[in-house]
Amino acid sequence: MNHAIRIHEHGGPEKMVWEEVPLPAPKADEVLVRHGAVGLNYIDVYFRTGLYKLPALPATLGMEAAGRIEAVGADVQDFAVGDRVAYAMAPIGAYAEARTLKADRVVKLPDGIDDATAAGMMLQGMTAQYLLRRTYAVKPGDTILVHAAAGGVGLIMCQWAKQLGCTVIGTVSTPEKAALAQANGADHVLIPGQDDLPARVKEITAGAMLPVVYDSVGKDTFTASLDCLAPLGMMVSYGNASGPVPPVDISVLAAKGSLFLTRPTLATYTAKHGDLVATATDLFSVVQSGAVKINVNQTFPLRDAAEAHRALEARKTTGSTVLLP
């Protein structure tokens, strides 16, 4: 038997159902993976609510997991039964005890990284990698702003950016989360609503402002984020936790200093298998070196994924959350 969390219609967490699903044999270019742990990410909420479009309904949620290969297709040469693997941003469907997926969407896990850690870091960690190393490649001496600094991506970004020689300004929603962000590398922590972000950034940078802002919050922080940038700065909007950013008059970018605006996704940055492997390898390296520690701060049984979604949307989680089949 194989079970999964599926939705038959969009809506709240109550629409998530634990049910038996078929488990087909892998096709020629696929592998069958038995999950040891499944990652929880805010993108799962977007798919559940309908903000992001699903291929069809009913659908199994989830974008990230780790486990062991139980079968390989006839044409698969780089993987064997028994290999430990992980993936993120494969076709949706990770909230399952096991699944098949294309072999070029998985990567081998190195010794020393267990399933729970892998499932708690693949999507978030590879997102941090492409944001810091490719979208805007941070340099030693840069001062950067990371929104949601106590979240899964935020905690990884704070640590990694410090390792790369940056001064990190983080935003969080509570004093408790401020302490967590500081413990993970944030030099300055601000709370939107209590702090005037542009004014505090101006104070921290002695008027220089920032070369980049990484914003996963969306609607509530977009305008303030633009006002934190130096001329020619880059606004990286990569999430919508507070709702989608409204349509933008691009002349605003000119008025605020010839700014750059991008809306990147991990799917694009890892679409080629070589880029996927390079991104994951860079992540594994900083984790194994100890420069970045993965904080799996919450675990839920996979069958209770609805409770995990409620906690995530209520901002009651910090770091990574893992679902255990």
Report on the structure:
This protein has 325 residues and is an alpha/beta fold. The chain has two domains: 3-121 and 294-324, Quinone Oxidoreductase, Chain A, domain 1 (Alpha-Beta Complex), CATH 3.90.180.10; 127-266, NAD(P)-binding Rossmann-like Domain (Rossmann fold, 3-Layer(aba) Sandwich). 30% of the residues lie in helices and 26% in strands. It contains eleven helices and 16 strands. It has helices spanning 42-49, 115-119, 122-135, 152-163, 175-183, 197-204, 222-226, 251-255, 266-269, 273-289, 305-313, and strands at residues 3-7, 16-20, 30-40, 59-60, 64-72, 84-88, 98-102, 107-108, 143-146, 167-171, 188-190, 210-215, 229-237, 260-262, 296-301, 320-324. The strands form three sheets. Strands 3, 5, 6, 7, 8, 15 and 16 form a seven-stranded mixed sheet that branches. Strands 11-10-9-12-13-14 form a six-stranded parallel sheet, with helices on both faces. Helix 3 packs across helix 4 (152-163) and helix 3 crosses helix 10 (273-289). The chain is globular and about 60 Å long. InterPro entries: ADH-like_C, ADH-like_N, ER, GroES-like_sf, NAD(P)-bd_dom_sf, QOR-like, Quin_OxRdtase/zeta-crystal_CS. This is Quinone oxidoreductase family protein. Keywords: NADP, Oxidoreductase.
